[in-house]
Amino acid sequence: MAEQRELTGDPLLAGFYNVRDAARLLGIDSTARLRGWLTGWPNARAGPIVQRQFVDTSTVSFLDLMELRFIDYFRAQKVPLQTLRRAADKARLHWETTHPFALSKSKYITDRRKIFAQSAEEQKDTITWDLATNQLEMWEALESAIARGVEFSPSTDLAERWRPKGSEFPDVIVDPHYAFGHPVIGSRAVPTSAIFSLYKAECGKSDQIAKWFNVTVEHVNQAVQFEIELSA
User: Per the CB 3.0–4.6 Å rule, which of 6, 43, 67, 149 could disulfide with 166?
Assistant: First the structure.
């Protein structure tokens, strides 16, 4: 088994989001869907898929967010929730980590594929079985898409930073060490929401806002457009 990858350090650096924040960052229009992945479906006697970092609260951590992103990608490929839940349980045991879907693609793609194949077989899930056993190129493309824009810790292999809009807004990052994990920009890690709020109040005076926050005009423009897209 791999070495233990438990979450250590200051819990204030874990990232804090409510479900609405998480849905907005992930571009998911249903908070109910996220709540199910996080807390389960009691009426259906089905448990959650994500083992949340902050138990008994409604708070979503950065690693929870990365797992939700993984789940969303696989649900788009019609992977059933039962298979995802079984795969998550197996992977947590196999790698001794609470967040196996937030692990580096480059190091775990083969094992993760095997775990999904095993889970699909146990669930009699032909869709995921075919995806995991017969369509290697699709699987690799899917894993690559999930890993895009994510930086992983060299010591734990877990996600530690994310560029949610990639090349479109390359300077906007989500890092739990800054602004409790909410999007920031520039060397001073200014929250994009703060820039956008002032931009609206000052009627679009980008150059003045750049001076106030000690960022570039380009950073102001990126932050504003990023927030507009998130709200769309």
Answer: 149
Its pTM stands at 0.93
Residue among 24, 6, 11, 4 at smallest CA distance from 69: 24
Quick: pLDDT tens for 127-173. Answer: 999 999 988 888 999 999 999 999 999 999 999 999 999 889 999 99
Contact in structure between 157 and 108 (CB atoms under 8 Å): yes
The structure tokens listed for 115 are 């775990």
- Chain-centroid distance, C-alpha 29: 15
Report the alpha-carbon angle 14-17-21, nearest 5: 145
Q: How far is CA 57 from the centre of its chain?
A: 18
DSSP string, the chain: -PPPB---S-GGGS--B-HHHHHHHHT-S-HHHHHHHHH-BGGGTB--SS--SSTTSS-B-HHHHHHHHHHHHHHHTT--HHHHHHHHHHHHHHHTBS-GGGB-HHHHHHHHHHHHHHHHHHHT-HHHHHHHHH-HHHHHHHHHHHHTTEEE-TTT-BEEEE-TTGGGSTTEEB-TTSGGG--EETTTTEEHHHHHHHHHHTTS-HHHHHHHHT--HHHHHHHHHHHHHHH-
Residue type, 138: M
Q: What is the mean pLDDT of residues 75-98?
A: 96
How are strands ordered across the β-sheet holding 184-185?
A: 172-173, 184-185, 190-191
Is there a contact between 15 and 180 (Cβ–Cβ < 8 Å)? yes
